[in-house]
Write a structure and sequence with these properties.
mainly beta, six-stranded mixed β-barrel, about 50% strand, binds 3-amino-5-(pyrrolidin-1-yl)-1H-pyrazole-4-carbonitrile
């Protein structure tokens, strides 16, 4: 079976996208994350006070994987931990009958405060899964063999609902050709490299190595590229209080592209005005990857494309224009 689930922006700035998932007998709204590999949910194991505003998984003790635990921490300092159950998970009609469901006993404040997000569904390689004593499979790995094609396709949109397709490519969701490149999955992520970037009409050769990551809001690249971009934005500056480059909300933002597999993957300038700040200017969608060690092609990069993640004998990534 194949299937498709909506990806709905959680707020007016596309901070993250939420998709409905049936876990056991509950429907939760999860953040599908190609940058991590745990399927974890808010659960009845948590203190009631942590569950206010959230949908949550009602655990069935008979389904517990006794002695199994998980603990995850993300690059932004957030995290969660808990116990593991084997239960039914359904995404867009695709069913995993005994998926490892990581039920939270504790989650960090960032998650408790975000009442829209009921957990995450990881779509990176299962080698990054945090369950002990035995690593568990992602939902995609669990259902892979039942899919017509061994792939999922990501269709995130700018200030609109998109979708995640499992097992098929939806020709109505893109125009032009799909450009495929091999994926570097050696570090557990969907890794990709670019050979150049462009700002407006000017191209510069450079090697940009990074990961595709639906769970990251913005686009993080090397500092020299970020500086060159905002040099073309009148009134832009690095604002340490806001934590990145900001600019007047009236500024005209040039398009940005990364050349991947010889094809320019363009990010429209409009998408690079991420959100207003508390200080009366606007926060940039392109920011420095300082301290990360590689680039992160997050939602700002992804939301103009239809991106196929194919786990064939050689993992591949396909890019097409929405
Ligand atoms: N930081 C971070 C991060 C990432 N690189 N991919 N997904 C992330 N998160 C998912 C939920 C919180 C952060």
């Amino acid at each position: 079976t194949n299937g498709s689930a909506p990806a709905v922006p959680s707020d007016q700035y596309d901070s993250l996208y939420l998709s409905p998932v049936t876990v056991g007998s509950s429907t939760l709204h999860l953040d599908f994350d190609t940058g991590s590999s745990d399927l974890w949910v808010f659960s009845s194991l948590q203190a009631q006070s942590s569950l206010v505003g959230h949908d949550y998984y009602m655990v069935d003790p008979a389904k517990e994987k006794q002695g199994y635990t998980w603990k995850i921490s993300y690059g932004d300092g957030s995290g969660a931990s808990g116990k593991v159950y084997a239960d039914k998970v359904v995404v867009g009609g695709v069913t995993a009958t005994a998926q490892a469901v990581e039920a939270a006993t504790a989650v960090s404040a960032q998650f408790t405060q975000d009442v829209d997000t009921d957990g995450l569904l990881g779509l990176a390689m299962s080698t990054l899964n945090t369950v002990k004593p035995q690593q568990q499979k992602t939902f995609f790995d669990t259902v892979l063999k039942q899919l017509a094609q061994p792939l999922f396709a990501v269709d995130l949109k700018y200030h609109a609902a998109g979708s995640y397709d499992f097992g098929f490519i939806d020709k109505s969701k893109y125009t032009g050709a799909i450009n495929y490149v091999n994926a570097d999955t050696s570090k557990g992520w969907w890794g990709v490299s670019a050979t150049a970037y462009s700002i407006g009409n000017a191209s510069t050769s450079a090697t940009v190595s990074g990961i595709l990551d639906t769970g990251t809001t913005l686009l993080y690249v090397d500092t020299p590229i970020v500086k060159a971009y905002y040099a073309k934005v009148k009134g832009s500056k690095m604002d340490n209080t806001q934590g990145g480059y900001v600019f007047p909300c009236s500024a005209t933002l040039p398009d940005f592209s990364l050349t991947i597999g010889g094809v320019k993957q363009i990010v429209p300038g409009k998408h690079i005005n991420y959100s207003p700040t508390s200080a009366g200017n606007c926060f940039g969608g392109i920011q420095t990857n300082d301290g990360i060690g590689f680039s992160i092609l997050g939602d700002i990069f992804l939301k103009s494309k239809y991106v196929i993640h194919e786990m064939g004998s050689t993992p591949r990534i396909g890019f097409a224009q929405q």
